[in-house]
Write a structure and sequence with these properties.
This protein has helices at about 10-25, 35-45, 60-70, 90-95, 110-120, 165-175, 180-190, 200-210; strands at about 5-10, 30, 50-55, 80-85, 100-105, 135, 140, 145-150, 155-160, 220-225, 230. By secondary structure, the protein is α/β, with parallel strands linked by helices. A five-stranded parallel sheet has the order 2-1-3-4-5, sandwiched between helices. The longest helix is centred in the middle third of the chain and has 14 residues, at about 110-120. Bound molecules: calcium ion.
């Protein structure tokens, strides 16, 4: 079945350019001019990926990305942010809001399609044969795409994680107690896509910790100064 991409962009010429190129590459494309319209469409037919323009009439793309990340039905949806803002600070802001990747206008349609494909590959379901993993109170079930935390009273809480954070946590939990450099994490979690910078890893680690913090589990993800990150069952700050 062809994968379905939703484009949320208020400039018809840009939406058309993206649409033509994605359709040509075998995707099914739908289009919305702003976030409210997009949300209505998504409720009827959840896309496999959303291309979201930063500057939209009404709600901004950044605000909409934040809302999608807190919506249980939409939080796992890959988001590619599209913007005229090229500053590093804006890029970090976009990723912080919940985007998984970021393309600056003007862009080459060929590169955009390549990034869409890379993002979809990165979020392909993990093999159903993979066994559940645990570290301390954190339990990750790859087949069910589910993360739960055992609470001190014996109950479990299901955690809301975006797709990149899920993959990052899955990789760390599959290779615990070892320090992974940013380059190593990019290689294994992002699939060695050369355009992604090492700082992106820091942004997603920050998002992962923010999701774990309400359950007092953020300390299991440790920063090893000058080296990278690791997950450990014996955190220093526990
Ligand atoms: Ca716009």
């Amino acid at each position: 079945m062809p994968q379905h991409i939703l484009i949320v962009e208020d400039e018809p010429s840009i939406a058309e350019l993206i649409s033509i190129n994605l359709t040509h590459s075998g995707f099914v494309v739908s289009r919305a001019l702003q976030s409210d319209e997009a949300l209505q469409m998504m409720k009827l037919n959840t896309p496999d990926l959303i291309i979201l323009d930063w500057m939209l009439p009404g709600k901004s793309g950044v605000q909409f990305a934040k809302e999608l990340r807190t919506n249980p039905a939409m939080q796992a949806l890959p988001i590619l942010m599209l913007t005229a803002k090229g500053e590093e600070a804006d890029k970090i802001l976009g990723l912080d809001a919940g985007a998984d990747d970021y393309v600056t206008k003007p862009f080459s349609p060929k590169e955009l399609v390549a990034r869409v494909k890379a993002l979809l590959r990165r979020h392909a379901p993990i093999s159903a044969e993979e066994k559940p993993l645990s570290i301390g109170p954190i339990e990750l079930d790859p087949a069910a795409h589910r993360i739960a935390v055992m609470m001190s009273n014996g109950s479990t809480k299901t955690l809301a994680l975006g797709p990149t954070e899920f993959r990052l946590l899955h990789f760390l939990m599959s290779n615990p107690e070892r320090v992974h450099s940013r380059a190593h994490l990019l290689d294994h979690v992002w699939g060695n896509e050369s355009y992604i910078e090492e700082r992106t890893v820091d942004v997603h680690i920050k998002r992962l910790r923010a999701a774990l913090a309400p359950y007092h589990c953020d300390q299991y993800v440790e920063t090893v100064r000058g080296s990278g990150y690791r997950i450990t069952k014996n955190p220093v700050d526990a």
